[in-house]
Amino acid sequence: SQAEIGLIGLGVMGSNLALNIAEKGNKIAVFNRTVDATRRFYAEAGALKDQIVPCETIEEFVAAIRPPRPIIIMIKAGDPVDQQMEALESHLAKGDIMIDAGNANFRDTMRRFDALKDSGLTFIGMGVSGGEEGARHGPSIMVGGTEESYRRVEKVLTSIAAKYDGVPCVAWLGENGAGHFVKTIHNGIEYADMQMIAEIYGILRDGLKMSAGEIGEVFGAWNKGRLNSYLIEITEKVLKAADPLTANPIVDMILDKAGQKGTGKWSVIEAQNLGIPATGIEAAVAARSISSMKEEREAAEKILGLPSMGEFKVADKAAFIKDLENALLAAKIGAYAQGFAVMAAASKEFNWNLPMPTIAKIWRAGCIIRSQFLDEITTAFAKAPDVANLIVTPAFATMVKETDGALRRVVSAAVLGGLPVPALASALGYFDSYRRGRGTANIIQAQRDFFGAHGFDRIDGADSHHGPWGSGLGA
Ligand code: 6PG
């Protein structure tokens, strides 16, 4: 019988995805640009060989798949995807579906989707989260494209997706770039989550002077509570791991320079394009950038020194650690609220009709930000899918009120102690601005009117739109 699906690109992610597909009982044809990788992959496939058709030419590969042919492309994002699509196109027939499963910029996905429109071929942009393990045993899958093309692959994707209480973490989220956009925001939130964890770690390490192992214990305890999540779980494991070379905690031996491949930055750019504040993600992306300036930071420390506010003082260590837990939860709520607000705005802008409860639902398992918390978000959006902001849903408003005091104390202590907490502070600033009915932009409006006659609206609705600044500007 013919293969149900094809996959091009047998790197780690592609290989793992292919093995997952085969293991779930779906016959799959595979192809790689270099034949060696295909042979090696097949040789190591063990008991799954029966479900795998290794192909050495594109012709053989295409012929092996049942039409209309869904073909997953899992290669480096960017130009290689365009080149691969071009090489493939002439071999395909009407109705065949090219599926880009990499971390594509959704604007590229929209372009590729449109470019194929007249060819009779279709295109799916598919966000896949969960790293190497997820790809092998159950990722979270965010699909964008035509609904019809999704139906062709739904069965296979459902079989390989992670399950949360038996519910598969895969969904069709909308046309063209919807899936890759949602994956981008997932990654933006991932950046914020990771940065906030890093800031809390910094307070424990540099403020409370705790060892990596002790901090690992704290994260371990938190993972049993409301912060329960994959990222907290791996943070404990990371903090408790020893370096094989020196026997020191491995984290103490790792250079403090973080890499980034672009999805966090794209989240921020798109948030700005849409006019939606995503300050937690912005702070996280900026923090990675500053982390990469290692030499500059070392030089600046020599010139400026560390802030000299004396010892980092807390009256009650246990109570402060409880505050740190609640502060992290509060800040997390802020970052997720922002991420979902960006998606809501994008949904309108690009006519996607993104289903918020479904997005939260398919992030509960499989992906990097998976957590119990996302189940709570799922419930909140299911009750109020069109709410303006997650933090005004009843459940999350309660959570914010329960935890923002802790966030305030933690940010204050960190600021006074000279410890950088840009992402935590951004969440506090966001809450404090968002919940305040009367803000301070009246002064900005007055300034704009003063220097540029831009005009303003009045609180009393009177029909007078300029201030009495003189030279004819006063109306
Ligand atoms: C995932 C991850 C994965 C990867 C990103 C971010 O959801 O499985 O987000 O896609 O970690 O590419 O990588 P950077 O941190 O290098 O930007």
UniProtKB/TrEMBL annotation:
<comment type="similarity">
    <text>Belongs to the 6-phosphogluconate dehydrogenase family.</text>
</comment>
<dbReference type="InterPro" id="IPR006113">
    <property type="entry name" value="6PGDH_Gnd/GntZ"/>
</dbReference>
<keyword id="KW-0570">Pentose shunt</keyword>
<dbReference type="Pfam" id="PF03446">
    <property type="entry name" value="NAD_binding_2"/>
</dbReference>
<dbReference type="Pfam" id="PF00393">
    <property type="entry name" value="6PGD"/>
</dbReference>
<comment type="subunit">
    <text>Homodimer.</text>
</comment>
<comment type="pathway">
    <text>Carbohydrate degradation; pentose phosphate pathway; D-ribulose 5-phosphate from D-glucose 6-phosphate (oxidative stage): step 3/3.</text>
</comment>
<dbReference type="InterPro" id="IPR008927">
    <property type="entry name" value="6-PGluconate_DH-like_C_sf"/>
</dbReference>
<feature type="domain" description="6-phosphogluconate dehydrogenase C-terminal">
    <location>
        <begin position="179"/>
        <end position="470"/>
    </location>
</feature>
<dbReference type="InterPro" id="IPR036291">
    <property type="entry name" value="NAD(P)-bd_dom_sf"/>
</dbReference>
<dbReference type="InterPro" id="IPR006115">
    <property type="entry name" value="6PGDH_NADP-bd"/>
</dbReference>
<keyword id="KW-0521">NADP</keyword>
<comment type="function">
    <text>Catalyzes the oxidative decarboxylation of 6-phosphogluconate to ribulose 5-phosphate and CO(2), with concomitant reduction of NADP to NADPH.</text>
</comment>
<protein>
    <recommendedName>
        <fullName>6-phosphogluconate dehydrogenase, decarboxylating</fullName>
        <ecNumber>1.1.1.44</ecNumber>
    </recommendedName>
</protein>
<keyword id="KW-0560">Oxidoreductase</keyword>
<dbReference type="GO" id="GO:0004616">
    <property type="term" value="F:phosphogluconate dehydrogenase (decarboxylating) activity"/>
</dbReference>
<keyword id="KW-0311">Gluconate utilization</keyword>
<dbReference type="InterPro" id="IPR006114">
    <property type="entry name" value="6PGDH_C"/>
</dbReference>
<dbReference type="InterPro" id="IPR013328">
    <property type="entry name" value="6PGD_dom2"/>
</dbReference>
<dbReference type="InterPro" id="IPR006184">
    <property type="entry name" value="6PGdom_BS"/>
</dbReference>
<dbReference type="InterPro" id="IPR006183">
    <property type="entry name" value="Pgluconate_DH"/>
</dbReference>
